[in-house]
Design a protein that fits this description.
Elements lengths: L10 H11 L11 E6 L4 E6 L13 H21 L1 E7 L8 E9 L5 H15 L14 H13 L3 E4 L2 H20 L1 H9 L1 E2 L2 H5 L4 E2 L6 E4 L18 E3 L5 E7 L4 H20 L3 E5 L6 H7 L8 E9 L12 H4 E3 L1
Parallel strand pairs: 1-13, 6-7, 8-9
Antiparallel strand pairs: 1-2, 2-4, 3-4, 5-10, 10-12, 11-12
Helix pairs in contact: 1-2, 2-3, 2-8, 3-8, 4-8
Length: 334
């Protein structure tokens, strides 16, 4: 149970808050964010770290913004849990597009319903991990689907669960994206930059470690990227996957940086709600990295504007925790 704070946050408080923020997912676990706390103004700045961008797979920095939006939502949850009021302004300075958000932190007001809802999600921040394991074919109850739709809508986005024919089509698009990667060595080079094999996986602080690749399907079809590619991995495992994955599309009306940040916050809210509902989750952006394939992901009958992320949800084992950079590496206190 969180309590209302009587004083604005200090450096240790902000260090704790950022520690929760950085548990957000990001493309290839690149963690493309940095934070700067202005103690005198009680402001925490969230900035994009272009050194962790992916020019080939994400030339517009759409996925980078989504990852940072997810971190921003985690920060809001952590602030509410700690009893601080967080006033968020996204993209506050047109002359500084790398400044993605300014979060004013003050001693918290009396709890309101929206704040209580954020506090409720706090236990899921540490529990949520991407799972590339097989899920069961058990269907998702409609009350849970509606809960996740409302979570996305609460952040200004739309969540659409695919019909079986649409899920099958999405799997074909993923395979198409894989084939394109195989024909373009530069795409594989960028992916390999962010994967960690062998002993490197044991000490990594970013990227996707070998132990999180997940098994390869012996039957059924995987709905995500093959991180190993043609490289040798230790103890390769194959196993049966669900034949019809439960996929959902997260979308927004617009397709600009503000929309991408909105999508990131909605994505994280959905993932945390799913975690509390004992669902395992994974993400796929592979078919969204080519403009022609991305256009095909949208069901034209849905009314969705722009697909920002593909989610796979189901009942199965949670994935392993992936490494994170230390807070000291991403936070500057001024």
């Amino acid at each position: 149970m969180s309590e209302r704070q009587s004083e604005p946050p200090g450096p240790q408080d902000v260090t704790d808050l950022v520690g929760y923020a950085v548990r957000a997912p990001s493309m290839h676990n690149a963690q493309p964010w940095s934070f700067r706390f202005l103690a005198g103004e009680h402001q925490l700045h969230l900035r994009a770290d272009l050194a962790r961008a992916m020019p080939r797979a994400d030339p517009r920095h759409r996925a980078l913004h989504i990852g940072c939006g997810a971190a921003l939502f985690n920060l809001r949850v952590a602030a509410a849990h700690a009893g601080f009021a967080a006033e968020v302004r996204v993209l506050p300075d047109p002359a500084d597009p790398l400044l993605l958000a300014v979060v004013g932190l003050e001693a918290g007001p009396a709890r309101t319903a929206p704040v209580s809802d954020l506090v409720r999600l706090h236990p899921a921040v540490g529990r949520r991990h991407t799972s590339r394991n097989p899920f069961s074919d058990k269907d998702l109850p409609e009350p849970i689907r509606q809960l996740l739709r409302e979570a996305a809508a609460g952040e200004g986005a739309q969540l659409l669960f695919t019909d079986p024919w649409h899920a099958d089509f999405m799997l074909k698009l993923v395979r198409d994206a894989e084939s394109r990667d195989g024909l373009d060595p530069s795409n594989r080079e960028e992916l390999e930059r962010w994967t960690r094999l062998g002993t490197e996986a044991e000490t990594a602080v970013d990227g996707v470690p070998e132990y999180a690749f997940g098994p390869r399907p012996s039957e059924g079809r995987a709905a995500w990227r093959d991180f190993a590619g043609r490289r040798q991995v230790a103890d390769p495992v194959t196993t049966a996957f669900e034949h019809t994955p439960h996929l959902a599309l997260l979308g927004t009306r617009g397709d600009r940086p503000a929309d991408w940040l909105r999508a990131g916050q909605a994505l994280q809210r959905v993932l945390l709600e799913a975690t509390l509902a004992d669902l395992a989750t994974s993400l796929s952006s592979h078919a969204l990295e080519s403009s022609d394939l991305r256009e095909l992901t949208r069901d034209p009958l849905s009314g969705m504007g722009h697909v920002q992320m593909v989610l796979r949800l189901g009942y199965g084992p949670q994935g392993p925790a992936t490494p994170r950079r230390s807070v000291q590496d991403v936070l500057e206190i001024a």
